[in-house]
Amino acid sequence: MIMSLNGTYNTNNTDPRSPRRSNAADARRSQACCWNLSGCLEMPMGAVVSSPNHSHPHHQQPLQNRGHQSLEQSISELEQQVRDLEREVQKQKELRIMYGKRMERTQDYLKYCLQVAQENGFLHLLMNPKDTQECLLSPHNFMIGNNVWLNGSPAQFPALVPSQPSDLDLISNQARANGWSIDPLEIEMKDQIGRGSTADIYRATWRGLDVAVKYMSPEFFHSNPSGAAFFAQELHTLSRQRHRFVLQLMGACLQPPDRAWVVTELLSTTLKEWLHGPGKARQPRDLASSLPLPPMEERLARAVEIAQAMQYLHEQRPRVVHRDLKPSNVFLDDALHVRVADFGHARFLRDGEYALTAETGTYVYMAPEVIKCEPYDEKCDVYSFGVIVNELVTGDHPYIDIDAGPAKIAMEVAEGILRPALPADNDGQLGELIELICLSWNQDPSLRLPFSSITPKLKEIQRKFAETNVS
Question: Which of 37, 77, 198, 274 has its CA 20 to 30 A from that of 45?
Answer without folding.
Answer: 77
